[in-house]
Amino acid sequence: MFEELRGRVVLVTGGASGIGAGIVDAFLAAGSTVIGADLSAAEGGLHEGREREWTVRLDVSDENAVVAALDSIEEHVGPVDVVVTAAGTSTLAFATETTEQEWDRNLDVNAKGSFLVAKHVATRLVAADRKGRIIFIASQAGKNGYRGMTAYVASKHAVLGVTKSMAVELAPRGILVNAICPGIIETPMKHRERIEGGAIRGMSAEEVAAEDRSQVPLGRTGTPQDVAGVALFLASDLAGYMTGQGLNVTGGMTMH
């Protein structure tokens, strides 16, 4: 399945853990060459890992670092065909208690970082007259509001706005731009959010987890693999007539 992805060069930001790591594994299984970019990666340029896997240290909010990483990828691996922007962060605080630093951090990583990576991949695709796929990892928080997450919610709404605008601009060049909007996915970040979010609401992490499960019509929270399957679909020929979409992967929590 997804034979057309064999040999494609795929860049996944936030590829060291959580949703990003699941997406890296899925594209490797499909036969792609995958570069996992993450702040936790070793410094010093590109590093070879498993077969067809590379890693690179990257702060997505630093435009110069994004350009340098793409230069190195093109030199050592080849031009990027598909990019998935899974790098993200979150802070938990009610709007009236959110600091300017927390606001800036969410917007810098989630919104600006996603935009900068997509911008520079798209620039190279256009310059080479090549088609490609840009897949943003947004969130159901890009379509809804959630208590204690104002800065995060704002950043993910911004990601969906970027998705729609870039989709319109790049469609004539055959570059498809879509977003995935995950719901409650079991990741290290979600575990931390339950602890921090529970603290500001007077709940334990276990109580927050039970509340999470109770809100999902399918009766379970998601896994990185649930999101990764949709990323493969959007990168494949099956999604060749789709652009500008925000696809929910929420177990039915969000239906719009």
Explained architecture:
By secondary structure, the protein is of the alpha/beta class. It has 7 helices and 8 strands. It has helices at 18-29, 63-76, 100-127, 150-170, 188-201, 205-214, 224-235; strands at residues 9-13, 33-38, 47-48, 53-57, 82-85, 132-137, 175-182, 246-249. The chain has an 8-stranded mixed sheet, sandwiched between helices. α1 crosses α7 (224-235). The model has no long low-confidence stretch (mean pLDDT 97).
Oligomeric form of this entry?
Answer: single chain
- How helical, in percent, are the residues? 40-55%
Helix and strand content put the structural class at alpha/beta
Following the backbone from N to C, one meets helices and strands in this order, namely: EHEEEHEHEHEHHHE
Shape: globular
Low-confidence segments: none
**CATH architecture annotation name:** 3-Layer(aba) Sandwich
Annotated CATH topology: Rossmann fold
Q: Can you identify the CATH superfamily?
A: NAD(P)-binding Rossmann-like Domain
Q: How many domain units? A: 1
**CATH class descriptor:** Alpha Beta
Distance between the termini: 29 Å
Pfam families: adh_short_C2
Organism: Microbacterium croceum
Keywords: Oxidoreductase
Protein name: SDR family oxidoreductase
